[in-house]
Amino acid sequence: MKASFLTMYGLVFVGVIHSHDQFLNACHVKMIPASFIQTHERHYTGLKVHITPPVMFSSNGSLKETADSKGKLYKLILAIEDNPSRAQELIWETTHGSESAASSSIKVEALLKYKFGSGTYNIGWELEWNSLQKLVERKELYPFPETSIDPQIYITKNPGMYSFSWVKGKGPRLHFGDNQQSSRILTYNDFQKTGIEFLLFSYADQNVAFQLGMIESGIPPRIFQQIVQCGNLEHLKLELVHNRIRGRCSLIADSIENERDIFYHPLNFDFDFGHHGQRIQFKLAQFIIAEGDICTLLIGKSTGESNEWVLGSSFLRAYNVTIDTGEVKTYKLVATNEEDLL
């Protein structure tokens, strides 16, 4: 059996119905702000994990080695909440570390299997010191402020049904299984010819993907540069600071209120998945963070093709997302009104 760990993969999403609060107390893993080094800047989101025995990290994110570090096995386990697991639901399966992913060469000595509903999920990995160190070096394990792993990598390398939600005041979460209902299921191909309206312009044949390991959503660089230059946004006095767009919250809030009645703002995203005639909107108030009267837009430059748009974890403020990462990947998206930040 192959016991490979984590490899990056891009995903996309699916269908829309009205909001509900069924995820509020469901079994979940918290998605927490994450960083590879000690810093106040947060660009990533990770699934919280516990490592035993405990390990220490230096401020630059590297593992601190002790005299007996290499003689131990380390268990890295997802921090599941709101569902105390029974012994029969958890099974450690030995893999003997004999096989690993060619792309990462991470050897896993044992996998912790978690039976939930009709599915079985990998939620724990037993590793030698060298393998744990490789995860850190390859930035597959976040050391700060708490240990965590990339959610997009996790669901890709561990096929199954996963749902993502945002709980007001608590942030994003990953859930096992699918608690959602939807009249429409979409696939990867449905998002390769998307129409997008943004900054008063329409863009045809755009590619849309998820990257829930990023807090920010990504837009093509040429369009990103236009935001601070857009004449229709001059009154917001937006500035580009350290590759992030910032402005005064009071001005942004006023502009949102002025546009609320017509359900439109130049900085809202409108997506038209033409194959199914489905339109969704990601509003400005759902992808900003405030510090005093300074608001930061949670959008940045995408790194792929010139027509690539990437939705980060802040998108979960607007939609619950279910992703089946099995052989035939399918997606569902359910509109919520959990958290408008202004």
Describe the structure.
- This protein has 342 residues and is mainly beta.
- It folds into two domains: 148 residues, no CATH class; 148 residues, Acid Proteases (Cathepsin D, subunit A, domain 1), CATH 2.40.70.10.
- It is 10% helix and 37% strand.
- The protein has four helices and 24 strands.
- The N terminus is likely disordered.
Brief digest:
Helices cover 10% and strands 37% of the residues. The protein has helices spanning 129-137, 151-157, 221-226, 249-259; strands at 28-34, 44-52, 73-78, 80-81, 90-94, 110-116, 119-128, 141-142, 148-149, 161-167, 171-176, 194-198, 201-210, 217-219, 239-241, 244-248, 269-273, 278-282, 288-291, 294-297, 299-301, 308-311, 319-324, 330-335.
Describe the secondary-structure layout.
Elements: E1 28-34, E2 44-52, E3 73-78, E4 80-81, E5 90-94, E6 110-116, E7 119-128, H1 129-137, E8 141-142, E9 148-149, H2 151-157, E10 161-167, E11 171-176, E12 194-198, E13 201-210, E14 217-219, H3 221-226, E15 239-241, E16 244-248, H4 249-259, E17 269-273, E18 278-282, E19 288-291, E20 294-297, E21 299-301, E22 308-311, E23 319-324, E24 330-335
Parallel strand pairs: 13-22, 14-21
Antiparallel strand pairs: 1-2, 1-4, 1-11, 2-3, 2-9, 3-7, 5-6, 6-7, 8-9, 10-11, 10-23, 12-13, 12-17, 15-16, 16-20, 17-18, 19-20, 23-24
Protein name: Peptidase A1 domain-containing protein
Signal peptide: 1-19
Organism: Albugo candida
